Amino acid sequence: MSEEKVVVLNFWPSMFGARVIMALEEKDIKFEYKEEDVFGDKTDLLLQSNPVHKKIPVLIHNGKPVCESNIILEYIDEVWNNDKTLRLLPSDPYEKAKCRFWADLIDKKVFDAGRGTWTKKGKEQEEAKREFIETLKVLETELGEKFYFGGNETVSVVDLVLISYYPWFHTWETIGDFSLENHTPKLMDWVRRCLARPAISKSLPDRLKILGRVSQIIKVHEFFYGY
Amino acid sequence: MSEEKVVVLNFWPSMFGARVIMALEEKDIKFEYKEEDVFGDKTDLLLQSNPVHKKIPVLIHNGKPVCESNIILEYIDEVWNNDKTLRLLPSDPYEKAKCRFWADLIDKKVFDAGRGTWTKKGKEQEEAKREFIETLKVLETELGEKFYFGGNETVSVVDLVLISYYPWFHTWETIGDFSLENHTPKLMDWVRRCLARPAISKSLPDRLKILGRVSQIIKVHEFFYGY
């Protein structure tokens, strides 16, 4: 495996990029990180690697690009799958389908609701907060007494997908004025267990930096758009 | 395999349900079909099988539910995978990732744009038509000279996902006043090749029945909402 070349194109606050980096770190795969400024000019490498969506993250493995974060996670798990590496998906088809179901549900529900906690106002903002918290409650129930979503021993794609949103929780709680510790305390214990894993804690963006950037975006928006 | 029990919960015009049925038919797996009226009362079986989304299709295999159409397709391909059955996904991780990418892209782009061709008006309708046709052109390029998206020999999940939208094309073309034959003639040849497969043609809903039902919905909408 000495000649493997792995490159990740990412934009630092992205939850979609963070999960790819965590997966590589969890499996101890060396990679080169390339920052893309998604609000600036996209690089030729990004445009060539993901010509349809033109979005990060992209994993480029020995020159071949793989796009869409959860597809990248499955690719990583299938390619680097020797006995020594952690497995992100179970081999049993039914357990695997359940894993995919929860990973898919998180992106379908958490992303939009979370964003709505700071981009929306009034009733719509309350509705976004309610949906976000309800989704986390459903996930807390699914976690149950397990150490991780992947079981007591190891993290799975469900853990990586959900924890990839964690750096944003602080922004959503602060601007939305609510505390997940009050609503889903057991899930917050799970967050702490995940953060105790070096591969996870070192790969996630700084939550204060995200809040700072979002606060700036809101100020600019209010100045120009007046609400 | 004689004691397998497979049940599919579906709503007849659904593209998401149709692809599951086609996969079962392609693999010659016997199943029981149960119609769900998604605009009426949902059955207890649906609510118990898919308590989070409460949506069809659901595949219930020996009592165990699998939800979300593309997750079901992967499950079917992993469970029924002996040498005699057709494989819907390649075994090579990179080829598999590409398959997943295109299947995912179709649902992300075709569903919303297609619906917009009849639920939207004026400029927004034109934009939906433009995006729908553009997406099909990208797919036509990806198909290239291959017989199917899965290669020259066999259909893949990409074929099943895209052809599951075909019964709706007639509605979108009729109401949106455009012809795919003019825009993507090679893709229309691919449609005809897919329809020549009995497993596909017998599993798809009747396109005239869909147009009839949509025309009715539009009349009711115009009567009550006035536009």
Automatic annotation (TrEMBL), chains A, B:
Report the locations given in the UniProt record: Cytoplasm, Cytosol
Print the keywords alphabetically: Cytoplasm, Detoxification, Transferase
GO terms, biological process:
glutathione metabolic process; toxin catabolic process
Q: Which CDD domains would you find in this protein's record?
A: GST_C_Tau, GST_N_Tau
Catalysed reactions listed for this entry: RX + glutathione = an S-substituted glutathione + a halide anion + H(+)
Q: What is its main location?
A: cytoplasm
One cellular component term (GO) for this entry is: cytosol
A single Gene Ontology MF term assigned here is: glutathione transferase activity
Q: What is its EC number?
A: 2.5.1.18
What InterPro entries would the database entry show? Answer: Glutathione-S-Trfase_C-like (IPR010987), Glutathione-S-Trfase_C_sf (IPR036282), Glutathione_S-Trfase (IPR040079), Glutathione_S-Trfase_N (IPR004045), GST_C_Tau (IPR045074), Omega/Tau-like (IPR045073), Thioredoxin-like_sf (IPR036249)
At the top level of its lineage, which domain of life is listed? Eukaryota
Q: List membrane-spanning regions.
A: none
Record SUPFAM superfamilies: GST C-terminal domain-like, Thioredoxin-like
Signal peptide stretch = none
Family statement = Belongs to the GST superfamily. Tau family.
Function of the molecule: Is involved in the conjugation of reduced glutathione to a wide number of exogenous and endogenous hydrophobic electrophiles.
For this entry, the protein name equals Glutathione S-transferase
The organism of origin for this protein: Brassica cretica (Mustard)
